[in-house]
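Hi,

I'm pasting everything inline rather than attaching a file, because the server keeps stripping attachments. The sequence lines come first, and each chain or strand is labelled.
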Amino acid sequence: MRDVFISGEDDATRAVIRRLVSDYNPKLHIIQSLPARGSEIKSKISSFNELARQYPIILLTDLDDDPCAPIGKTNLLNGITQSSGFVINIACDEVEAWLMADTEGFAYYFGIPLTEMPKFLPQKMQGRKPLSEISLNVKSSWHFTHQLAHLSTKSDVRAQVSVPLNDKTCKGKEYNTAVVPFIEKVWKPETGRLVSDSLNRMINRIQGL
Amino acid sequence: MSLYISRLKLYNWKNFHECDVKVAPRCFIIGANAAGKSNFLDCIRFLRDVARQGGGLQSAVDQRGGVTKIRCLAARKRTDISIETDLRDMESGELKWVYSLKIKNVGGGITKNQANVLEEKVFDAVSKEYLLERSSNDHGEDADTLKYTHLEQATANRSFRAIRDAFADVEYLNVIPQLVRESGSTILTSGKEDYYGRNFLNRLSLLSERTQKSYLKRINGILASVVPQLDELTFKKDSMGVPHIEARYKHWRKSGSMQDETAFSDGTLRLIGFLFAMLDGNGIILLEEPEINLNSGIVEQMPEFIASVQRGRKRQVFVTTHSYEMLSNAGISMQEVLVLDTSNEGTVVKVVSDIPALKAAIEAGLTIGDVVIPYVKPSTVAQMNAQVKES
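And the predicted assembly:
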């Protein structure tokens, strides 16, 4: 077993890392999660990088306002030379997009009509080669909580996840309670990686550790 | 001379099947709920209960429901319970004493259950000789003599009185504001041990006027910076002789209004209790989650406050905590933090510096709070909300 640290901004992100490690490199032993609340990742990035010289760190963060993952990574590292054990992953555009990449599983579990699920299409994101990612004009978590969850046939999902359109809150009141069990038990990353290149790259990195 | 506990070795003590850990003069104890933080402190309270006047082994065991209630659930063939402590000088750090006590349960059926001493040893580390090596098989020991430790007997502990004093002076205070406000409860607990602060005002009333004023002056100084609307904390007794504390609550009227403890906020009472506990006495002090009810800004200051008190009063301080703010103080060293980790064989206690991954993370620049709080978080905690079903 090889000891590793993980770091993710919220429960759903950390659940995704744990699930990918468990499925694709079960020889890794997760010691614990390191703090990554809000701007903490940026303020602690040099400590993470230093620690990664001894113990690999698998970091997962959202693309947020950066135009593409490589720029997001450069901004995150802020001039630091990345240690080989520091595995930085950026979900395009958010971890929720990776969950929706298992389109049928997501739609069935959350009771959302399949026809309403977002498409995954090849897109040029500043790079030369088009990459397949979610095709949405809004953030995928916002789309889930403000639109898809309202269409759910399951009252639990509507109560836990949905947020009124005029509410700027980005997550439902019991968002993690609803989403984490899906990530742990239902989500098929093997299906998702076929349409999300950023997810596929993270899986490859974990397998390479 | 103040002594501090520098090592604790436990066998079959409550959550701890086997534990052998070094302890610093300022010691933070971290663990998940039910990991055994309070039970870890309880072995020190147990030694206090054995050593203090009016205490003794039988009383200390009875207070805890008997030997079988103390014994670790993970105990196997060996059913005895043992506690061993190293005691060092707070000033020089020199090892002075090693005290060990091994007990077992006797009785059952028609005979009364009681604790018997199996072994009791005192090692004088300065002269490097045993002052006491007592075993249940020794000539002269019988069922009656084994009911008592030498630690609790003034004639028997003459040559190691310093150990008795160090244990007897252990303080444990966990102020519960609701109980402090309930003035009638001071009568109910008078003469008994006061773990929850019911008698804390009574204890303040028993101090000499000079000491009382000195403590209140220092507490007032601290309150002025953290609860600026409170001023002039004073002590008084009502017509029934029940002790109270009073303070002026400043508002738009020039003179403000006097309020007593019944009107103080939970946080203010906890803070006053914490400050009083730190200032009163010289013995080892055990603090249970002092951060409760307090603003995180105050909690952040606690480690430095403890250190500054320790500079003046050479007393060991144990603190159990769940607070990220408390542990994010950069002045806390890895050797000062004990991590309680649950397992099928009971709880395992480790110094943070002995856990390589945590040590590496802290050396890389992360704070102890960053690293240790997530480390002790139960991996299944996220499932908590999924278990809630409306009826």
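Residues 187-191 of chain B have pLDDT under 50 and may be disordered.

If the labels don't parse on your end, tell me and I'll reformat.
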